[in-house]
Amino acid sequence: MTSTQITGTRAIASSALRGAGLIDRDERMRDASDKPGGRKGASKHRAHRPRPIDAYKDHTPGPSRTSMLSARVTGAEPLAIRGAARPTAVGRMRRNAVSAVTGKPSLEPRTPTVSKKAVDVWREFVKSRYNAEAQFLNLERMLDDDIIRRSRLVPPGAPGSSLREASVIFKLASQLKPEVKTVSLANNNISQGQLLTSLPHYLPNLVNLSLENNNLQLWRDLDNFSSRNHKMEQLQELILIGNPLRELEYKNGRGDKYRGEIGRRFPSLTVLDREPMTVISFDAPQASSSTASAKLPAATTFPADMQGSFITGVEPSIVSGFLARFFSTYDNQRASLMDAYHPSATFSFSANTAIPTRARMQGFQYSKEMPNQKRLEWSPWLAGGHGGSRNLSRMAGGLDKMVKSLHVGSEEAVRAMCALPGSRHDVAGSPEKFCVDAWPVGEGAGMSLFTSVHGQFTEQPVGGERSFDRSFILAPAPEGSRAKLNGWDVMIMSDQLVVRSYSSPEAWKPGPMRVQHGDPLPAFSLSQIPPEVQQELSQIVSGPCPEPQRSLVLQICQRTGLNVKFAVECLQSNGWDLDRAVKNFEEVKVRACNGVYVLARVDVPAGQSCSRCLPIGASTSLTLRY
Amino acid sequence: MSVFTSSDIEIAARAADQFTRLYYHTYDSDSRSDDIPNFYRSTSTVTWNGTGYQGSEGVKSMMERMPPTKHEVQSYDCHPIPGNQPPSLMITVSGTVTHGKGPAGNPASTPRSSLEGQPRVFSQTFMLVPDPTAPPAKPGEVAKYYVGADAMRFVG
Predict the structure, then answer these.
(1) How many helices (H) and strands (E) does chain A have?
(2) A347 with A474, same domain?
(3) pLDDT tens across A221-275, in order?
(4) What is the number of domains present in chain B?
(5) Are residues A386 and A443 located together in one domain of the fold?
(6) Helix, strand, coil percentages in chain B from 3-state DSSP, rounded to 5
(7) In a designed cystine with B94, which of A217, A352, A359, B126 is the match (CB 3.0 to 4.6 A)?
(8) In whole angstroms, what is the distance from residue A43 CA to residue A6 CA?
């Protein structure tokens, strides 16, 4: 084994390009300790993608996965590669034809760059350029490299190079140990982003990448290896200094836009062109916290039953009154909703076009009750509304569309809404088709109401049913504001609409839910009822209370959280019919403090909160009640 | 009240991208009971299908009783909310979630038409708020954000 040799004494930073990206060629490390071919085993797990390197192999390739794609990747020699990879009659003929022309063994493609010798040279080159200690692969100025020159290979970026060389280099890089964290491709005159297409495939965990002083000109070039589709999710630092793409943007005073476009494409980036990116961060779980102490997810039941609308900390009539008026106006006089939005409000809509599994199994698309489902189309949602659907997970790289599809200001918001298909929300007629969760957030002057609505509407004029989710941030409308003057007690600060294929409102029907088929539904057994409730029950319905009624009371307690006294009242007023009682409860309930429900119209004592409920403060009620 | 610049919007979208990826990856991982509560604070308010939970502790107790999950995010959107600076963010996510072992975990005798075990459509809305007690730690960091409010429901 040859030992590692590093000439020069400069310390090399282990992860940041700033430190590591400037290693001179004479300082590069030579590492001949790896036996040729010794890493083939390690590459086996990547077998699901086309492997341009297959073309270099001197043994018969395994089952082909390289037909179309490899032909594209390898470009110049589609016939030879296809033939080599797929032992068919046609392939044999083609190979024979090739060997007849070149006089070489049939498995060896024609161009000199794809000989067996070539891959060995590339391997030697890649090893010579790897600093294992810094996990840094220095691929700068490849055209000047002695090894490459000697063998007359054509490196990526040089005239006459193809995608193949780049793919081979990245594949060899993927076999290096320890794993490559940093790659510098500086000073290679790379002008085609396509050359980098295979980079995220072979080096998916790359942390730092320099493309300094190349010739990349178009955003499209970056899209070949950007983070969309979960590529390069670990990339923290990128250098594009000295590429026309960047330099032109700065020259034209669009540096901020340039950084935004890059951020859009590489969301994990923290440093761009040696300057920190503006980022928002979270308490992301650290690798170290994922230790053995973790309790593995093993529950076979859900933590709670499905519950109806959750409205707390605010007079329910404020929420229901707002929603009833909002949807009615949205259906009938959309333009006049301008009054309900704050002058700086934000609005966007997005389409989730996926077909919901359960709805598909239930056959809603072909149901007789909804004859127009097949006539619904996504195009008015995907492209309509002055900017189109704002599904950020499907949005191609561009910053423009992302900005254009967010409508800022009441005028813009309503203009966009008016350009969307018409609707009929039957809020009044079928309340069970809607579900609301709402509670106050923030404090004092910043108090607002976090509101999330799920439901369905009939799309007009087609007449088909759609499901939707709509989330609002609402704030009390100040005296004298346009909203207040027009009778809106709350106004909209933010509004996000998601439109989906139709799913049944059964999804939020209150009651127990199963995880797997055949699981017992959570039982209403006496042992599960808290002791204090049992005691209460025995006091209130002692003596003459027959067993069936006792069981109904327990079920009501379990399903609604009502205490026994109210459960009995609720059942009595509904003729001891469980379903009617639950429904009635859902209609009138308001959640109060101390973990119990009380029936509607009972005010919450100011400043109370408890561990099971959400905090409810005096300011909440005062601010939101008018 | 200032109107958002395209840079504000882009930063918010990037944060949403990071957040949704991280959040659901963590949610579906073995260490979720320890890690998911880190996204919340004691003042956070959370509902899961209409049941309320309070703070990181509440979230932890919920996660401990949750069957294994597999989320697929099909759509998400994010706004900076007009008001404070740096702004709070509202993120809505639409996707599917499979619990337990999914359809494969149903007994062999399960009718083919049974919906149990099949993926559900979920809708989740988050309000992310900057944490004033955790000042920016790195250059370029606007603020550390946590989940102030989170409403999750099965909707299909």
Answers:
(1) 24, 18
(2) yes
(3) 888 888 666 678 889 999 999 999 999 999 999 898 899 889 888 888 899 999 9
(4) 1
(5) yes
(6) 30, 40, 35
(7) A352
(8) 28
Judgement on whether residues A318 and A455 belong to the same structural domain of the protein = yes
Q: State which residue of chain A sits closest to B115, comparing Cα positions.
A: A358
Using CA atoms, how far residue B150 sits from A125, A440, A441, B75, B90, in Å, is 53, 12, 11, 17, 10
> Hey, are the CB atoms on A280 and B14 less than 8 Å from each other?
yes
Give A 210-269 residues with CB within 8 A of chain B: 233, 256-257, 260, 263-264, 267-268
If asked whether residues A496 and A548 sit together in one domain, one would say: no
B9 contacts in chain A (CB < 8 Å): 402-403, 406
Among B5, B43, B49, B146, the residue to mutate for chain A (most A Cβ within 10 A): B49
Same domain, A477 and A550: no
Residues of B with Cβ-Cβ distance to A293 under 8 angstroms:
34
- The answer to whether residue A332 is domain-embedded is yes
3-state SS assignment for residue B144: strand
- Within 8 A of B84 by CB-CB distance, chain A residues are 446
pLDDT at site A10:
32
Question: Three-class SS of residue A144?
Answer: helix
- Residue A132: which CATH number? 3.80.10.10
Rounded to 10 degrees, what is the CA torsion of A426, A429, A435, A438? 90
ipTM of the complex: 0.96
User: A421: domain range?
Assistant: 305-508
On whether both A338 and A466 belong to a single domain, the answer is yes
pLDDT of residue A428: 87
Mean per-residue pLDDT for A417-424?
A: 97
Residues from chain B contacting residue A297 (CB–CB below 8 Å): 30, 32-33, 63, 66-69
Tokens of A314: 């605010």
| d(CA B89, nearest CA chain A) in Å | 10
Interchain proximity A467–B156, CB inside 8 Å: yes
Residues A329, A471 within the same domain: yes
- pLDDT at residue A86, rounded to an integer: 38
Residues in B touching A409 (Cβ below 8 Å): 3
Distance in angstroms (rounded) separating the CA atoms of residues A309 and B91: 20
Whole-prediction pTM: 0.70
Q: Of all residues in chain A, what percent carry a pLDDT higher than 70?
A: 67
If asked whether residues A476 and A529 sit together in one domain, one would say no
Which comes out higher in pLDDT, residue B97 or A6?
B97
Query: Highest-confidence range of A236-250, A382-396, A612-626, by mean pLDDT?
Result: A236-250
Question: Residue B143 is part of which domain span?
Answer: 6-154
More confident residue, B86 or B150: B150
